């Protein structure tokens, strides 16, 4: 396998999965459930949490492998933020804009705003957690 730092990949998977799934559930099912319901979003009680968890896990694996590759290429922790920014842009375009285009959310601008803020917070937190984790435990950056 092309993984250079298996322990860091596993840490990255865990950080993304725990932080993202927890934040997603709070954001969509608790804090802003009324706002999403008003947008014609399915009722929070209809949420398929296991399927959502699977989606987050797949994202976590893909991002962790991408970060490992990027860090091997650059040997610079700034690669973490470049990958986080690219992942944000990709997920924003495919999830937020894609859902707004195909689903009956009204007004679409409110849906795009809510989901854009959600993803921005998610990736700022994820990027910070990655930076801390790699600063503390990644042997590639130890002197």
Overall SS class = mainly alpha
- Number of distinct beta strands: 0
Shape: elongated
| Radius of gyration, CA atoms, in whole angstroms | 16 Å
Helix and strand succession?
A: HHHHH
Instruction: Give the N-terminus to C-terminus distance in angstroms.
Output: 27 Å
Instruction: Report on the biggest sheet.
Output: none
Uncertain runs are none
Give structural attributes.
5 helices, mainly alpha, single chain, elongated, 143 residues
Verbal overview:
The protein is elongated and about 50 Å long. The relative contact order is 0.17. The chain has helices at residues 6-31, 33-38, 49-74, 78-102, 108-137. The chain has one domain. The mean pLDDT is 89. It is mainly alpha-helical and 143 residues long.
Please specify the SSE layout and strand pairing.
Elements: H1 6-31, H2 33-38, H3 49-74, H4 78-102, H5 108-137
Helix pairs in contact: 1-3, 1-5, 3-4, 4-5
Can you give me a brief rundown of this structure?
The chain contains five helices and no strands.
